[in-house]
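All the exercises in this workshop are built on plain-text protein records. A record pairs a protein's sequence with a compact description of its fold. Read left to right, the backbone structure tokens trace the chain's path through space. Once this layout is familiar, the rest of the handout is easier to follow. Here is such a record, shown just as it appears in the course material:
>
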Amino acid sequence: MTLLQIILATLIGGVFSVFLAATVALTFLAKFANRIVAFAVGVLLGFAFTDLLPEAIHLGLDITTLGWVLIGGIMGFFLLEKLALWRHDHATELGHTQEKPIVAMIVIGDGMHNFVDGILLAATFLTDWTLGWAAAIAITAHEIPQEISDFMVLLNAGVSKMKALFLNAISGAAMTLGGVIGWMSLSNAHAAIPSY
């Protein structure tokens, strides 16, 4: 019974949320894809500077160390993106056409994110089924806007609407895989899981 609930919750959070996001992202938001990507970057940077950095300082992180971590993180992701673009540009020079490398990064990153969400859901359902459904609702609520942003990035990268839907559904299905693997690995670890 618990495994069935885990599978149902992960399908709702991983795949159903993709289809809900698609109804918004692939209809009236599709024509604003490039502007929405820029807006999302601004929101994330604003959140980092106005919420995460002050919280890190409040928790006692030295401001100089924090500055170096911030610069290192920005530079690290900048270099990672440039290396991915540089590596994939060689195929274009040779006359091969391919999608932008950001497509693979979005699909793989979202798949890993969803896989971990599935493990989290398995752990919560093994603890208590009501806690599991509360976590499933929370995960679905955060997946919908996140999937909309994935659609916007994929559309901006030149992916067709149907292919974007397919890729997001596949990465969303990783949540079910994570849920099943989490259930298999955690169902015998009841002593390690706190009960409420």
Observations:
- The two ends are 19 Å apart (CA to CA).
- Residues 92 and 98 are 7 Å apart (CA to CA).
